Amino acid sequence: MSPETSEEKETFVETALKLGGSSEDEARKTGALDRADEQMENLFNKKYQTSGSPVHLAVWGDRFPTELFNSQVATADADAQQVMEDCITVVKELKREGRLLDENHKISEETLHQLAEKGYWGLLVDKEYGGSFVPFSAFSIFLTRMATVDATVAGMASVHGCIGAVDPLRGFGTPKQKQKLLPVLASGERLSAFALTEPCAGSDLTALRTTAKLDGDEYVVNGEKLFITNVVPGRTIGLVCLIENKPAVLIVELPPEENEHFQIKPYGLWALKHTYNQGIIFKNFRVPEENLLVAPKGDGLTIAYHGLNRGRIALCAGAAGSIRLMLADMLPWAQHRVTYGAAIETRELVQRRLGRMAGLIAGCDALTEWGGWLLDQGFRGEMECIVAKIFGSEAQKEAAIEYYMKTHGGRSFLHGHLFGDNVHEFLAPCIYEGEGEVLGLAFLKSLIKEHGKQFFEPIGKVLYENKIKSPNPLNPMHAFKLAPVAGPYLAWKTRQSLPGAFKQADLPAMPPRLAELTRFAAKGLQRSRLECSNMMMKHKLSLPNRQCAMSEVSSRIQKLIVMFATCMWAAKQKDELVVEAAIVLGQDLRRELTGARVSNEELRTVTKLGAAIAEGKYSPIADIDTNPILMNYEND
Predict the structure, then answer these.
(1) CA–CA gap between residue 226 and residue 194 (Å, rounded)
(2) What is the CATH number of domain 191-293?
């Protein structure tokens, strides 16, 4: 193995953990992840790194970066547009004819082949390798459309193109590797998956145990992978393993059948039921040395992180489609179900549910477009993609449980009902692509990292070197030791209290209610720098272990990001009901942040929106096929 890796210096997180009393092993393992993060940063031009990202600048910058929230969807060329339209048509026809799934209720081989013929699997592959290469922002919006037809088919495109073998090869493959492997991935001759999770390694990727040892011109792989979506014999996987005790990625072409060196490990899994999610066991399995991917600055974790960001945006796009499907499916029932002489579509509680679901769709649409645009522009997008993933998965869960299930009542649990048959599909995104609260901690760590390195790392080292556990500014010795390193922080803190420290965001033209919410979010983001800094000062070296405090601050900042991004997106929309939906979401988030009671005006906004949706005026769910009402009855 000969990747060019930077010298493994102790990272800020590793230093902080050691200074805070964590064990050498915990500090080393956490430091390995932090190092991979820094290596990932180094792949990007400075202006596109985390410190130049919209979220980082919105919190820490001298001016609010409104222009970095003004996303524009890149346009796919005519041929790629035709591919996407043809694929939508194929899936609709197969579903209508009952041929989308096979006898095992998995996406059928016929479906996979027909999609391959139309070019579905090459949407993210460059044209020189047989694909049609769609810009990621356009691809993500297409996934939302596909998810309204079938969420599993949409998810398989994300697995194949974002976190599967396609993205690692496009980003890190040599010309020879790309020429050999990308054409068969683009054609659909071989579909792909990504094998990262292990029985002992989920969020803790330092616990990887699968190894690959070089023997001649081949690597010999031993180990087990778990929860691998889209894996069956004959597919191509990006395998994260240890080579010389360092994470690496091998592109593995699985044989067409199991053998003594390679076995599939099936298990019962409620979610992802229409595709294959299985384990893989390798016993002295051989992979050509030439299939090793090498990051120019980093290792296998660097390669893994790259595709995960795209997968997170794709997840949010899928959520936008699934919530649309749920909302569309609520309307026939709300019109049919009569209580006390009136259809429940006329009841305020149901109208509020419809309006709030539209708000969740607006948030998902906004984050999908914005995140995809940032990746197209060349940004790393780590924090922005995390926000999209967390919001999308939590929005889908909220829509399914709080609004869709409760409106359908007992019929939700009937066999054949969209909720009852798919509840695990609606909830699973909260876990895969990174569990939400754990990702929220990663979001905050990325956000405060530069501030910590600049001001708090020097203070922490002085405290550690002088064995000061509880600094007291009235203690002359403490004051003397800390003065040189505390001065810059105190100067920064003083500047934050001066007039003009928080500059008003320069907003584009938008409706007054939307502008009010947008300014609230912008001010909240700017002021959150003090909240972050005060938290760091309060907990000092123990901050890495204060997960609950970090999670609460992270959640508040994420809500402000969702609020601002959604309002900026809504300002460009022509459909008045879509704008109203964004306002509903913004009002909900503002109340969560302030603790205020809902006002009569806000209730009128959401119920009026719900009533318009019930009347069929909401364009985002037009032309979506709905399911028949179960246990129908005739009204008197």
Answers:
(1) 11
(2) 2.40.110.10
